[in-house]
Amino acid sequence: MLYTEIPYDNPECHDQKELIDCSKEEFMALFEPTKPGILMRLFRVMCFFLFLGPFKILLTFISFFLFYIVASIIPIFRGLFKTQRDYKNWAFQICRPLIRLGLLSIGITKINLKGKIDPDSRTIVSNHLSLIETLAILYEFPVSYLAASNLQRHHIIRATAGVFEFIFVDRSDSSSRISNKLVNISNDPSLLPIFVFPEGKVTNGDALVGFRTGAFISETPVQAITVRFRQWLCPKNMSMVSWNEDNWFFYCYQVYAIPFITMDIEVLPPCNWKGKTTTPSERATEVQLQIANSLHTKPFSMTNKVLFEEKKKTE
Description:
Layout: E1 3-6, H1 24-28, H2 38-50, H3 53-73, H4 84-106, E2 108-114, E3 123-126, H5 132-140, E4 144-148, H6 155-163, E5 165-169, H7 175-186, E6 194-196, E7 207-208, E8 222-232, H8 248-256, E9 260-267, H9 280-295, E10 298-299, H10 305-314
Helix pairs in contact: 3-4, 3-6, 4-5
């Protein structure tokens, strides 16, 4: 094929009714970085220069610098708008061209969008592969983000939070307090809908990690988005958009070595449980199966809690 799909469209993963109980080995394999052989490493070096990797890096710095300048100026106009949501929607339109330039600099040549966010949806969820889909969704939809509190130390993140709605949480804090924040946001229609990655960890796309339940506690409508990347002229064992590589600079290098990338983003029908007796866990499972069946990928029942347990064992 001319491209590699992430997640892979598995023809066997249709109309799945239950989550899959996998082994710990199968689960941990979702977080393994690509390990190319010598020929693939040489091919990757060739692609990095042949497809203008150094120029794309320079363009990324330019686009992010321009975005930082604009995002730092926009809050001056906040007082001209009646509500916070009106201001955020206006700021979203101002910043969109710069976000698209940033995506283009990474190699995203085309985004195929299907569907629309329902105006009544208060929580948006998606599968999680990298930081790239975070930018793509920021480009396509005005939403607020749940983000780790340690990201506030970055100037560009703080500037972005002044334009878009960022909810910073301490991952070491109790899950109940984070869940309460999600419920408060979803119950406040004056705010933008909250966007959450319920897997809580990026994967290589071979399966979905079990969804955490925090995004499904409120009875307000939840709407799912699916994201699929196509890496053109790039074998899967050469480079991956999936952020499984521990070394940030090496991860960026392999992404810039991918000749071209296209994205398919599909907005699925919203789920509304108001008046129903379903539990947050049942709702999370329902949406996970909805995404898995749309992407035709496996839905694992094991959650990212296993990763934290493994990390504690090594400490």
